[in-house]
Amino acid sequence: MRSLIFLTILGTSAIAFADPVVTTSPTTVHPGDAVLVTVVGATELPHGKAGGRPLEFFPAQRGYQAVFATPLSIDEDHVLVEVNDGAKPVSVAVVAKTFPETKVIVEEELANPGKEDGQKIDADNRAVEKSYAQAAGAPQFTRPFRRPPGAVTSTFGEWRTFNDGHRSQHLGLDVAAREGARVDAVDAGTVALVRETFLMGNIVVIAHGAGISSLYFHLSKVTVAEGDVVKQGERIGLAGHTGRTTGPHLHLSIHVSGGMVDPLSYLKLALAAK
Ligand SMILES: [Zn+2]
Q1: What total number of domains does the chain contain?
Q2: Residue 227 pLDDT > 50, yes or no?
């Protein structure tokens, strides 16, 4: 009897002091894909890095989670995920991807902006970049993001040549939406930025916490203000074709720690914040 009790205590303590275990989902990615890191068995909020960049962990229904972006410009065949506390590092395999090329015809001033418009574009980009800081801290969501309705008309990473001149990479997902259709928050968060921009048109950026932001472009109307707290599925504006577009649609971008990610890869992550 005494030896049985002893063994039970030993067994319990062995589990309590085991090293934390790190897993990633998926385990193989393309440049621009989002990756979910889960740490089970840590006694406190873990700290870690993916590809040398800090991870932003949050308490999850099981252990802790963090999301990071596989850089679009990555030239290595893996991303190393390292977590403190004695956990074994995990390697995420990166498989190169050739993104589609398309030609787009828009108004000349939108294809090849002049100096003054160029300055406005730079200021717009700085404002968006700055808004990402508001996504730091605890997650404001508990469920995975909800994909906006509408057929996909353009995918993430596509290369576009505008009027045979300027070439740029599409850092979001386009879905069909008629002019004036309601646009909803993909998840709960706080409105971090509302701005009338040159190329992206009327935009809304929502900060969701855990370093995650969602961005909505080309809106005909914005129905929220900076600082508003929104629920998942709450209306934030109406679809339109403001900025550099060929017609009404919704452009959705997702920014996480490390950069922009393919929204379709992000929507597959089993996020479960506590
Ligand atoms: Zn787009």
Answers
A1: 2
A2: yes
| Stated pTM of the model | 0.90
Rounded CA separation 255/131 (Å)? 11
Which amino acid, one-letter code, is at 136? Answer: A
Condensed to tens digits (0 to 9), the pLDDT of residues 241-262 reads 999 998 999 999 999 999 999 9
- Which DSSP letter does residue 108 get? H
Report the separation in Å between the CA atom of 62 and the middle of ligand 1, taken as the mean of its atom positions. Answer: 35
Render pLDDT for 157-183 as a digit per residue (tens, 0 to 9).
Answer: 999 888 877 788 999 999 999 999 999
Answer with the one of 45, 62, 94 that is the final residue of a domain.
Answer: 94
Clarify whether residues 136 and 212 are in a common domain: yes
**CATH at residue 10:** 2.60.40.10
Say whether both 148 and 208 belong to one domain.
Answer: yes
Give the neighbor-by-neighbor strand order of the sheet with 182-184: 182-184, 235-238, 221-222
Ligand 1 centroid–CA 98 distance in Å is 18
Instruction: Assess if residue 270 is contained within a domain.
Output: no
Alpha-carbon span 246 to 182, nearest angstrom: 19
What's the 209 CA to ligand 1 centre distance in angstroms?
24
* 105 and 236 co-located in one domain: yes
In this predicted structure, what is the pLDDT of residue 17?
A: 59
> 174 C-alpha to center of ligand 1: Å?
5
